[in-house]
Amino acid sequence: MSFILIGFAQCNRRSEYIVRPAWMFEGWACEPQLNRLHESVEDYCASESKREWVFLKFTARASERAVASENNAHMEGSCRAMANDFIRQPDALQRMVYDMQGCCSATDCGLRTEAYDTIQQLTANSQRMVYNCCPLDIETGHCSADNEWRECRCLGVVHVPGGQDALQAALSEE
After folding, report:
1. How many domains does the chain contain in total?
2. Residue 13 to residue 6: CA distance in whole angstroms
3. Which residues constitute the domain of residue 22?
4. Residues 142, 2 contacting (CB under 8 angstroms)
5. 35-92 per-position pLDDT tens digit
6. Whole-model pTM?
7. Would you say residue 28 lies in a domain?
8. Within a 10 A sphere around the Cβ of 160, how many other Cβ atoms?
9. Is 77 domain-assigned?
């Protein structure tokens, strides 16, 4: 399991990254609780047996127009908007898995294309959201309040009815 520390605050993002970092989690967990952003998902989900939400990191980019403006607030808004557009796409979960595994297609990941079709069918009407984003240093791959928002690392969350067990069962039926 991997973690990246990021910050979240509506008014003073810069100091929030430094003073009170939040978490970025990958894996299966309980339903995200936005009122508990500064707590570890492992802590608030510890007593939950129902883990139907998959948390995966992905990268989004600000629009060329936002980058050309050189306005960091404009780039942030654009990067977050692109992330929200991405998570709403039917194949978002598959593409996040590709990103996580560093491959471009099901074949590159060592999986049959049908496996991703199954994932898409299972999550077609599922709730999904961007939990949070942070500005990404393109060279290091790390988030920092000092970075511009040309690219951002985001945490996508997708509800998978029945959780990991249901997903594995659906994939094994092929």
Report:
1. 1
2. 10
3. 3-85+127-172
4. no
5. 887 777 878 888 888 889 988 888 999 999 999 999 999 999 999 999 999 998 877 8
6. 0.75
7. yes
8. 21
9. yes
